Queue: 2 jobs
Job 1
Amino acid sequence: MDIFIQQIINGLVLGSIYALVALGYTMVYGILGLINFAHGEVVMIGALTALTAIGLLVPSGLPGPVVVLGGLLIAIPVCMTVGFTIERIAYRPLRNAPRLAPLITAIGVSIVLQQLAMIGWGRNYHTFPPLLPAAPHQFLGAAITDLQIIIIATAAALMAALVWLVTRTRLGRAMRATAENPAVARLMGVDVDRVISFTFVLGSALAAVAGVMVAANYSIAHYAMGFMLGLKAFTAAVLGGIGNLGGAMLGGLLLGIIESLAAGYIGDLTGGFLGSHYKDVFAFFVLILVLVFRPSGLMGEKVAERA
Amino acid sequence: MLEVRGLEVHYGGICAVRGVDLDVAAGEKVALIGANGAGKTSTLKAIARMLPARGSVKLSGEAIEHAPPHLLVRKGLALVPEGRGVFARLSVLENLEMGAYVRDDKAVVDADIERVFGLLPRLKERAGQTAGTLSGGEQQMVAIGRALMSRPRILLLDEPSMGLSPIMVDTVFDVIREVAREGVTLLLVEQNARLALSLCDRGCVMDGGEITLSAPAAELLDNPAVRAAYLGE
């Protein structure tokens, strides 16, 4: 039983991170109908930028959490700039091109960013210094660290803020109107290009936070980390129903929990034949099941309405 | 108010609008009538910069053919698009708020929402519903109410009767008449020529991408050629 609770906690942490990244995929898809495959690389850039900044801040002798916060506050604007630039130079010129063109471009951007990161940060793993209190608290027979609590709480707060922004503000209304019908939104006076830029910038800011969370949670970051993470978050977005904010959150959390439970029980279930490193298989197994039985996702409406 | 000169719209090699000249004076109500494919909708879309076009368009003397499309509403031009174009996932109230997107005087906007609700009481009952759940006629009312929320000086309406039941058409045209009475300049594209001409001061007949006839509405209603071609007599 305590293993179950432990895996649920781990799953919530992982799921919170997936959800933040999935939101970036789903917001862009909702507005442009584009799968921004480079989004995972933005997460990676966020993680590595923060680590570099943290490395520079550590000698200052500031308290650990302040150093981490400093790294985060540097990673966020860097990622926002990257997201803005990607849209501007890679996607905007293809706005009216056939759908395959921006998709291929997205994969290209992803490769370019990954290679640039490899040149800049090298091929080695970067370790996240132990700056945050790691002593676990006992909770229902399982252990939970301050870091895990911070990750879950921060993700929840950011998601609540995002929902508020999208549903309650003038800008959010413009985003929803643009997602539905950009030509008519423009008639209403919405500067559609700006709304699209803002969507990329917003998604990238969430990606930066997620990047720092991943690096802190696994104590490690690497130029290629964005690929699998991006793929998982994309799976989460599809699981929940791509284009749907609530779906991305639900999909992220579910995927995190499924993956953690799989990692915890797969050994027992297969009599030791498969180990926990097969947990990734579960994520994609879930994706296949969703695509077969409910292609529009758990909370999705009709898919490809504007395809 | 609106001055269009030499407007041309091309779709690939096809020329849909061939050098249209059109004037609408302040406070005037002009109907653009004609058969399917005559170029009426393309003309409206080109004026509202929803389509690339050649020619000049002036609004109150100011050239707008190169202005960014999203700034037109600030200059007093509103278009109720063909097929209504309501934001189906937004509530009726949010649709109206989108209509007032460029205005930031919240108190006045709230007063205008009440004014639109007064004009279109049906919308008040449905304020919280998503627009996609409404009937076609109600959606048309949302589209008209939304356009009014920008306090336009000139309102362009594209086929407001399309796809509506006869009773709904009457209701929608009553609303348009009410709007015109408040002094908003109208440019109305309509296939239902009789209805359009009965509401407007002047009619322009479009055929093959050109305006072939422009005359006071009453005259067009009596014109034998127009009666035969567009009024089904």
Job 2
Amino acid sequence: MSDDVLLRATDIVKSFTSRGKKLGARSVATAVNGVSLEVRRGETLGIVGESGCGKSTLARCLVQLLPVTSGTVEFNGATLTGLSRRQMRPHRREMQLVFQDPYASLNPRRTVGDIVADPMRINKVGTEAEIGERVRELFATVGLDPASLRRYPHEFSGGQRQRIGIARSLSLNPSLVVADEPVSALDVSVQAQVLNLMADLQETFKLTYLFIAHDLGVVRHVSDRVGVMYLGEIVELGEAEVLYEKPLHPYTEALLSVVPELNDTDAPRRERILISGDVPDPSDRPTGCAFHPRCPVATAVCRTDKPAFVELRTGRFVACHHPRNLDA
Amino acid sequence: MLSVRDLRVSFATRQGALRAVDGLSFDVGSKEVLGIVGESGSGKSVAMYSMLGLVRDSNVTISGSVKFEGREILGLSDREMQSVRGGDIGMIFQDPMTALTPVYTVGWQIVEQIRAHTDMTKQQARERAIGLLGEVGIPDPKSRVDHYPHEFSGGMRQRVVIAMALSCNPKLLIADEPTTALDVTTQAQILDLMLKMQESYGSSIVIITHDMGVIAEMAHRVVVMYAGRPAEIGPEVDVVRYPRHPYTWGLLGAVPRVDSKNRRLVTIPGTSVSPLDVPEGCAFGPRCEHRMEICDERPVLHGPGDHLDACWLSDAQRLAIRSARSVAGGAS
């Protein structure tokens, strides 16, 4: 693994088996279907997709909170898949999570100071006094008053709670922070504060972010590179700027075209491409390309052959038989 | 069509009066789409619900005037209000799962509403329900009419709710965050549908949302609310391109854009004021970087033409602030 790659996932599959509608029947939903990606040191890789596309499941598989069905995850040169909990522990310190719901991800019965201190206590990284000092330092770093660390989560607003979640994720000096919809529960003015904070922290602590969100504007804002997921697969991946300007996959193109925009300049807006229907059931995947039933440019080959995920241009990956915007 | 004057809604609580809506006035013209935008707790939903008599709480005090087609509807009896709601005024709620009852088929629910407001027979009403479901883009409406809400996807459920709202040819549609629970591709389908339906039914729409993008796509005019008060009212294009109130500057600058990348988002310092503790003067004062002495007095909505704002800054001051910002590269 080359030095600048922090995390590499190869052909990750995660499926869930559930009881089917009929007695005794089993149905298998494939939430993540063969995802390969690399996260480079110091970058922000954004993963964007609609609900049910498997982006959160992918994140949990990458940090080994969920066992993968198949595929491998390498982190910092070590293979994580197949490790026991004990073997996993030293790696866990290096990869921390920030969750979506700042109300559900903080224990209501512990003070916020304890919440931030717990990871350090569990990993025995110093005396109680040293940990206390570090907690105060972290509070100041994320813009919270260190005097408030004996309070409980319910005494804080949504934005402040998300800051507490971020302080907790930084307590063990991780190299990778996986943020799963960290701002989607926040109002837009608070969202901006948290996004700016995360950008500052990345610079100060040289963090690598895997940033998962459904909001295309947020993902563009934070990401160096972006992967677009549809029905458990990454259908396109590339530099954020190029991907947003000249999307290759028809799904990306349609997705970007329908985001409501502020028309505050005279620049013509993108032509809207409305895609019909809903995302199919992951336990009943379409044949060929998973997007073909809704794709405006699908042809016969899309119904039968699954397109390979290939590097069409340097650094630009796409899984499509009829990529768009290639001439430009 | 709809004319709201000095609407005030306050709740008596143990901590004192909670002023959820504090002096809201606006008009909605015929076939107009009015957007009401604000962050959570700004009072935008409470304002609509109290207008329609949907806020039932012994501790609530509602005052002001709400005229619908010239008729005062604030303070109507429940029975009179029921004939207005669902009849001439249709409603679309945020969460289509709670707006529909899970124990009856969608057809039953639409028929029920049509029969409550018209004298159609059951058979006629059912025909109309099937027709409506087809109109809002539900495939195979003849069989889907007998399905239960849980058998529909989120987007399809919202279509059912829209069909229901349209069932009595309303003159006014009130949509409270109609697409917030939906994915962006589904949101586009639903917004598209609402505009089409508005065209063919000729109804006015009041759309309540936190998303400035949705406002920009849909609305002709916008009301920006902060802490229960209107901060700025004006034509959509003017408010988005030439916002006048510092809160609107912050709100617009904080949106991460799909069409361009700004290094840094504009943030509004602090958090929204508690509705229990709204300052006597300008509600936005405590968070405003352009605060002046006079801001301890409450500003009234004023402005040239139809673009109004509640801010003490003079035009010259605003111009200076905005040009300083654009030189600094910040979006406003």
